[in-house]
Design the sequence.
């Protein structure tokens, strides 16, 4: 237990100090935080509940659009803003910007959770690959449809309010970094708290055998919907921050980007290890480092690398890093190992 | 008359979709994998026909050349990736083929550029009903070729040795293995045939419509939708639901506007799945 406190403290101190130690990488660090949040939320859904989804991008994009729309719409007419494109006649004062962003984030978290609750009853009745394909369809449909809606910019995109002119140049990066870091800490602690309750056991029961779980008297549908709502809540938050960070929202390339973010979150969780608390965090960090390396040094070939990476991870490494560690050092994970039994298995191979 | 136009366009388009969906049903039924890269195979087949057109050969020959090339592409993909996911969880196959799909998209983007292209067949158009309905001859040609290929494949599956081996493997892979069927070869051939079908469809699409490296995913979703509506191994059903989807899409295009066309296809998939889920849940069952 003591070791854990030291570990958490070290990570927390590092997280707070990071933007000052690596001032050039503030945006990258913020994106890393967002990616970790997405991986953790995907893991609640795909890893613990066993409902592999490609559709959490729906909540991410929804949060992004909602946060920006609220932030603009609170003070200015939204239609005129998006029509104006890049040239703005309206300028947020600092107070307006931060108030709008705060309210926007709240909306961006709550509304996706409500949407998840509403569609959850219909869609969570599907299982396995039908659920995966259905959510894939949802994500792409949302992107295509939002690309046709005029008031949020349609095909030409939506410029989020520029960061207000406060005296320090560094302020924008620091603000968004600390936003994403605080949300990350909040997400991690919330998910950790959830994982220590009966709720997680129910989710695992659903993953392992849903019919049996139902026969045991668990109202599986209720738990599935709650699980999805938790996932959607944090996804929406991450999306809202990401929208402000990127500064420009496009329906298919930024918000409902199923080809990038939608796959990334699945991949990160699987790389780190599905169904573990730390797996997604480790997976997302490694993935981000790998991705940035590729994006910088092999510009243009990044999707080729991504495609190969997906295939390799899925085929040769489906258990992820945590799964591999667990197999190697089961004692560390609190599993009781019969030494003779373990040796016997090894010789059998 | 717009209605009649939409219906005819949709039917001709739907036959093409049914051809792709037949390949999807084949591999799903035999190997139990869902191939997200299906649409990218279609687009790749289309580019083969387009390249023949660029070098002065009539793109209609692509209907013969493209499946031959695509068969080998399919077998190579099988040997490299698919044979490792055949016996595993379906989600693994979905993710792995998603990876292949991204890879293909980007490779095609490099090789052929990001422009929307089409191979002009120069077939002209046919006017029907006092010139109120315009049908490009290329669409009629493509529907005709699709039907020929579909019928040819059905006969091949019924009569040939490989066809019988494929059907046996689909019924029970283990029993087929015991009775001396080399299932590994059968799987490779199945995936190759699927890719070849995609090649035919792609060549026809490059003649009738347009192709673009990133347009693959909608074809995958369409074929998936057709298969779940029709069921595996139900060929008349695949043809019917393919044509139904084609008509739906044309109407969505006319009523909602072109920008919502792809979106409506994906939404229809969600609606169909949800409808089936509620229908089955009355009997306390779920889609398997």
Sequence:
């Amino acid at each position: 237990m003591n070791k854990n406190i030291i570990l958490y403290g070290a990570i927390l101190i590092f997280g707070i100090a990071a933007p000052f130690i690596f001032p050039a990488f503030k945006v990258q660090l913020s994106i890393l935080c967002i990616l970790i949040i997405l991986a953790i939320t995907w893991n609640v859904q795909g890893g613990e509940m066993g409902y592999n989804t490609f559709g959490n991008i729906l909540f991410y994009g929804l949060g992004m659009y909602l946060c920006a729309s609220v932030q603009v719409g609170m003070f200015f007419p939204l239609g005129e803003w998006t029509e104006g494109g890049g040239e703005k006649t309206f300028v947020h004062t600092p107070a307006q910007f931060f108030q709008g962003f705060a309210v926007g984030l709240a909306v961006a978290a709550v509304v996706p959770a409500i949407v998840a609750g509403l569609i959850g009853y219909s869609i969570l009745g599907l299982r396995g690959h039908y659920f995966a394909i259905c959510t894939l369809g949802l994500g792409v449909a949302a992107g295509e449809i939002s690309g046709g809606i005029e008031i949020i910019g349609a095909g030409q995109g939506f410029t989020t309010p520029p960061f207000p002119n406060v005296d320090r140049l560094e302020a924008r990066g620091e603000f968004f970094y600390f936003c994403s870091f605080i949300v990350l800490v909040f997400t991690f602690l919330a998910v950790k708290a959830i994982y220590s309750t009966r709720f997680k056991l129910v989710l695992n029961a659903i993953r392992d055998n849903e019919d049996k779980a139902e026969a045991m008297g668990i109202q599986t549908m209720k738990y599935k919907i709650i699980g999805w709502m938790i996932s959607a809540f944090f996804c929406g938050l991450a999306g809202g921050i990401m929208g402000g960070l990127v500064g420009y929202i496009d329906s298919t390339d930024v918000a409902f980007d199923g080809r990038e973010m939608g796959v990334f979150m699945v991949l990160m969780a699987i790389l780190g290890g599905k169904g573990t608390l730390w797996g997604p965090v480790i997976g997302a960090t490694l993935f981000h480092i790998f991705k940035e390396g590729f994006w910088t040094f092999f510009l243009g070939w990044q999707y080729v690398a991504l495609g190969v990476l997906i295939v390799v991870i899925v085929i040769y490494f489906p258990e992820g890093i945590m799964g591999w560690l667990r197999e190697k050092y089961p004692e560390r994970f609190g599993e009781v190992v019969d030494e003779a039994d373990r040796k016997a298995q090894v010789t059998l191979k | 008359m717009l209605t009649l136009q939409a219906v005819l366009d949709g039917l001709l388009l739907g036959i093409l979709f049914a051809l792709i969906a037949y390949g999807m049903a084949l591999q799903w039924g035999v190997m139990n994998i869902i191939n997200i890269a299906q649409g990218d195979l279609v687009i790749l087949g289309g580019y083969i026909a387009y390249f023949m057109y660029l070098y002065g050969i009539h793109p209609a020959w692509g209907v013969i050349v493209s499946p031959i090339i695509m068969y080998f592409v399919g077998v190579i993909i099988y040997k490299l990736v698919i044979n490792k996911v055949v016996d595993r969880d379906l989600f693994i196959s979905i993710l792995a083929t998603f990876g292949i799909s991204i890879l293909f998209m980007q490779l095609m983007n490099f090789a052929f550029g990001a422009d929307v292209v089409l191979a002009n067949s120069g077939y002209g158009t046919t006017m029907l009903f006092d010139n109120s309905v315009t049908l490009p001859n290329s669409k009629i040609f493509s529907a005709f070729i699709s039907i020929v290929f579909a019928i040819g494949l059905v006969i091949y599956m019924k009569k040939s040795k490989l066809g019988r081996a494929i059907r046996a493997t689909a019924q029970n892979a283990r029993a087929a293995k015991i009775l001396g069927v080399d299932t590994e070869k059968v799987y490779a051939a199945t995936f190759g045939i699927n890719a070849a079908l995609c090649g035919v469809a792609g060549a026809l699409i490059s003649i009738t419509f347009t192709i673009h490296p990133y347009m693959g995913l909608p074809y995958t979703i369409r074929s998936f939708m057709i298969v779940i509506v029709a069921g595996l191994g139900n060929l008349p059903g695949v043809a019917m639901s393919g044509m139904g989807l084609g008509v739906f899409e044309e109407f969505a295009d006319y009523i909602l506007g072109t920008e919502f066309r792809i979106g409506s296809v994906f939404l229809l998939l969600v609606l169909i799945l949800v409808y089936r889920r509620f229908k089955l849940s009355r009997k306390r069952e779920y889609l398997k």
In short: The mean pLDDT of chain A is 82. Chain A touches chain B at residues 52, 122-123, 125-130, 132-134, 136-138, 140-141, 143-145, 147-148, 154-155, 259, 263, 266, 270, 300-301, 303-304, 306-311, 314-315, 318 (CB under 8 Å). The longest strand of chain A covers residues 158-159. Strands of chain A lie at 158-159, 248-249.
